[in-house]
Amino acid sequence: MFAKIREIEFFEGIFCRSCRFDRCLLGGMNFRTMQKFPNGIDINKISAMLNEKKHQLFEKAAKSQRYPNFGQYDVTIQQEFSSGNNKPEVELLQFLLYSDDKLLHIRYSETDISPNYYNKSMSDILNNIDGGSLSDSILAKSDMFSKRRRVPKSLDFFMQQLREGVEIKPRWVTIDSFLIIEMTKTMPVLGQLSFEDKIHLYSRNGLTAIVFSMLFYSKNLQGSDVLISPAGMSPILIEHDETANLLFYKHLIRITEFNLSRKEFLILRVLILLHTATTELSKIGFGIIHAELEKLSKTLLFYEQHKWGDAKGAERFANLMINIRPILNIGKIHKNHARSRANNFPTFMNSLIFENCEE
């Protein structure tokens, strides 16, 4: 990607921060912003060639994404932790990986999610109105979604739609918000909480967990240097100011600097969701959340010490726990930005963005 988003200013001494041409194309490089071209260059021909190359790269990236079958991690985890595969920490990791596999299957499937699933209030989603028991979230219906992966469209395609005033659908922040609520609401700890405590948790840190996920997936699954959806759309195409640069580019770089493994990411995501002020929860709810936070912390420490040894693992664990605060701050900035935009979000998003606990 460029040191200055979507601009190349060689003559001012501003160069690309990466010499990998493919990554620049995928990140949205617009070569027309170069200040000078040699005489005789056919700009339109070059543009067509780059667009074709970008389309090939997107297709290659999409086809190379191979998510494991559900349950595959049961064997992998037990092999990785062969000396302690009956530990509760291993069981928790298995659950988190299994749930995320299902989420990713739906997120990257070429089958669209019907708006009927998420055009509801937070109350209806948490109580699974018209959907059966809480365990019957959309993740339990993953077989309805094709195993064929969505092929992202080019950034030029979306730029053309924006120029023509076409509303770009679906909105992936809405879909990701819905999917992460659907995934986390099936966790045993959520099942022990009152409805009011659940609402407080999602209102407080739900959007942070969602943004954290979108940034991690953009970089680690799609190889992008900007926040990008499975369809290939990036919000940085719509907004080009310093705020957008911070939200959709610099924040991704910040998350990348943590150098998280997938297991670290999954544990941290739940720690972030459950991180809340004690005064907002009932006394019973606080006790339940406190016990779960201890279990998650022990699981993270167990994973790090198994991977790095006791001393280095403890050091890595401490550094990751310190990084929760910057991630929460990133979520706060995204929430404030969302509040400043008059977007017609589904009703349930009001709880996440405006912390509206009165449904």
Automatic annotation (TrEMBL):
The root-end lineage is:
Eukaryota, Metazoa, Ecdysozoa, Nematoda, Chromadorea
Gene3D superfamilies per record: Retinoid X Receptor (1.10.565.10)
- Keyword Transcription assigned to the entry: answer is yes
**What keywords would UniProt list here?**
Receptor, Transcription, Transcription regulation
Q: Where is the NR LBD domain?
A: 133-359
Q: What is this protein called?
A: NR LBD domain-containing protein
